[in-house]
Write a structure and sequence with these properties.
CATH class of chain A: Alpha Beta
Order of helices and strands of chain A: HHEEHEEEE
Structural class of chain A: alpha+beta
Organism (chains A, B, C, D): mine drainage metagenome
GO molecular function, one term (chains A, B, C, D): hydrolase activity
Pfam families (chains A, B, C, D): 4HBT
Helix content of chain A: 25-40%
Low-confidence stretches of chain A: 1-11
Number of domains of chain A: 1
Oligomer: homotetramer
Strand order of the largest sheet of chain A: 1-2-4-5-6-3
CATH superfamily of chain A: Hotdog Thioesterase
Shape of chain A: globular
Keywords (chains A, B, C, D): Hydrolase
Protein name (chains A, B, C, D): Thioesterase superfamily protein
CATH architecture of chain A: Roll
Strand content of chain A: 35-45%
Chain lengths: ~160, ~160, ~160, ~160
């Protein structure tokens, strides 16, 4: 995860300004995330952000399961949708929404935690195309359980 | 919704058998749906089923929202994923799972209810390709807010 | 196919104006299509257009095949891409391009002709979401061989 | 491109056998590719292959263009479809076909050459999920112009 780390004292002014802009954007992302009732309801947390990246984590509990005890595909598609939104929004520098995405499920997810990481691969003025990987953490090991690809568009002002 | 309606007395035996098979499959679908903890948690109900069709409804409440008061995309993608699973499973005649899907959001969803309807457009021996429309019901009127397309594969026995 | 038919004399002026606008748009679509070298090279023709619809046909010949004698998936994906572009462009009223699409192949295509029909299902100011069906014509009968769904965006002026 | 390189003399027998298997599979892939009339017609060449990877290149000429002089999206979607087929077929070890894919166009393609590279990210017994990047080569520099994601299924024997 390309989460930004706070800079030390020796950085140039220009660098400091850029750092602050990224800090501000990360804070903005956290604030938006925390104002999403559904993300709170489902139990997700924004655990990383960068200029073109976002990471959302979700501790797995019984209520996330489908009929066979695996994580429901809808939980995984929520992670794809929302992580893509944040990676794209960070790349576009403000309010944004996912206009479409596609997901392939690779293997059933179980374990203690889901981690979704999205990266804005192609960034234009008004839209960003993002790729997302969703991992389940089982016995301390990350297993890739789904991949997604989608478009984020800047919200009309 | 092509929900099957119970047949009257004059039907032929062959017809009755087929009816019973459809009844059994619908009952099987309901049973599976009710054993999905996530579908219970999110508040969805299987409100229709047919030989190649499924309908899932979800009364909208505050916990389904994103930061602007609309329904979160993850709720809508859950509906696409699961309604496609049931339409495909009914078409394939048994246990099945969505292996991939794609969704386009057409307009923000709000109102009192979401209704998702999926139909298996192409059915083979081991997989079904389904299309799904997701409507929000606002002031008693259905508005198309997303369309999806995906693949359901028969679960290994 | 919702191809517009020339109006008779009794129409109102407003109706005539609208008819002319549709005629103009269809002529504009034909002109664009005929200026696509790849569409000429592959042997496709724009065989229908309407306010939100387009139809492209392609007589099948040996050069369109893959290794087993069926039509190559790339020919079918060309039809999906381009028919979606024209349906979306007609709906948006001008120059447009497909920004993304997804296709599911339902059955191998052979026969004498392919016909692709796209419809703009969701139309906004700057983008249209379209659905497309691609048929092969075998022994005079249309068989659905693929379905697609994608986004068309208005070209920057 | 993870194209296999011939092994030197010191390899173990097991290694030699595996090398030969990969050589055989690459030769098999080339043979299939060369028996695709549409790939010959459009002017594409299989320029790389590995246990889970394929690369297809296409020198750009006038006949590949759309109305504005860029490469037609249908040419790029052909590359996505076919490169995904070969990466998946190599990963599955035999005859295979693309059952579905999704593509996002990132920027208009022009220049002298297109290069598409696909990798099988998730491989099961009967299907492989692949990701593909399509580059245009302009002034000797590769520019990412589209990304795709799709499913390849083993052909019925």
């Amino acid at each position: 995860m390309r989460t930004r780390i706070a800079a030390s004292g020796g950085a140039t002014d220009a660098h400091n300004l850029e750092e602050r802009a990224v800090d501000d954007l990360s804070a903005f992302a956290r604030q938006i995330f925390e104002s999403q009732p559904f993300s709170q309801f489902i139990g997700a947390r924004l655990t990383g952000s960068g200029p073109r990246d976002a990471e959302i984590s979700l501790p797995i509990s019984g209520q996330h399961q489908q009929q066979h005890g695996f994580v429901h595909g809808g939980v995984i598609s929520y992670l794809a949708d929302n992580t893509i939104t944040f990676a794209g929004g960070l790349a576009l520098g403000g309010n944004a929404l996912t206009s479409e995405f596609k997901i392939n499920y690779l293997k059933p997810a179980r374990g203690s935690l889901l981690v979704a990481r999205a990266h804005a691969t192609g960034v234009g003025k008004r839209q960003a195309v993002c790729q997302c990987e969703i991992y389940s953490v089982e016995d301390g090991e990350e297993k890739l359980c789904a991949i997604a690809q989608g478009t984020v568009v800047a919200a009309a002002q």
